[in-house]
Design goal:
Order of helices and strands: HEHEHEEHEHHEHHE
Number of domains: 2
Shape: globular
CATH superfamily of the largest domain: Vaccinia Virus protein VP39
Strand content: 15-25%
Largest sheet: 7 strands, mixed
CATH class of the largest domain: Alpha Beta
Strand order of the largest sheet: 3-2-1-4-5-7-6
Bound molecules: S-adenosylmethionine
Radius of gyration: 18 Å
Helix content: 25-40%
Number of strands: 7
Distance between the termini: 37 Å
CATH architecture of the largest domain: 3-Layer(aba) Sandwich
């Protein structure tokens, strides 16, 4: 699901535009939590050099294969940010798409992003934690109310506390998720802590959720240049 090819290109999306604006021709991009590398690969060109960081060796292999196919120089670092940040050289632009909600200790994560950007850091995330969308399923299967956050505004507030006055662009796009895809149904069933035999019920419940557009937020800032 996180292969770059699974995401249609969005050349005019605010996060891509913010990153491209700061990139010199042939410049370098560090993609933290790259998955299949959709955010970095969307920047080729003008980017001429990509580094992907992710704890998933399998996704890094996909990233490397797609970067090679795009004819761009690439390197990969397997591990969690910021634990592996010391092994990663700075880049002109650091991108981090749809990762922040996975990060419990967000402050050192954000500081290390800034420490690795010569020109700009661009974060991309949904307005709310993606799992908020399945709150009705928790209610239905377990009678449990799930939280309605965290939100992108929480992250922007954290940046403010770190002294970062980020520029912010808000947008909206159709959901990319095919809720009838068996892989999607299986993932949601596992997230709901239900056994495999409940999958047909999950499929029905998932298909019944309203097909709402996804609200997105891009936040970017230009940190002081690292030496
Ligand atoms: C939702 S996927 C997004 C992948 C890709 N950035 C994209 O937009 O298609 C989140 C990715 O972040 C990675 N990830 C989660 N926590 C991370 C961390 N602390 N450091 C680096 N990568 C992380 C996961 O392994 C996964 O590949």
């Amino acid at each position: 699901m996180f292969r770059a090819g699974a995401r249609p290109p969005e050349p005019d999306s605010p996060p891509r535009a913010a990153a491209a604006e700061a990139l010199p021709p042939g410049g370098s991009v560090l993609d933290v939590g790259c998955g299949g590398g959709a955010a970095a690969l969307a920047l080729v060109p003008p980017a001429g050099e990509l580094t992907g960081v992710d704890p998933s060796a399998e996704l890094l292999e996909a990233f490397a294969a797609d970067a090679a196919a795009a004819g761009v120089a690439h390197s990969e670092v397997c591990g969690s940010w910021p634990a592996v940040a010391g092994q990663v050289p700075p880049a002109d632009v650091v991108v981090c798409a749809h990762v922040a909600y996975n990060v419990a200790d967000i402050e050192p994560f954000l500081v290390a992003l800034g420490d690795h950007a010569r020109r700009r850091v661009v974060l991309e995330l949904t307005t709310r934690h993606p799992l908020c969308a399945t709150a009705p399923l928790w209610r239905r299967f377990w009678g449990i109310e799930r939280p309605s956050g965290p939100t992108a505004d929480d992250l922007i507030a954290v940046l403010g506390e770190l002294g970062v006055d980020a520029e912010v662009a808000r947008g909206s796009r159709p959901s990319r998720r095919d809720r009838t895809d068996p892989a999607q149904v299986a993932m949601v069933r596992r997230q709901l802590c239900l056994p495999a035999e409940r999958e047909p019920e999950v499929a029905v419940a998932l298909a019944g959720l309203p097909d709402q557009p996804v609200e997105t937020v891009a936040a970017w800032w230009d940190p002081a240049r690292p030496d």
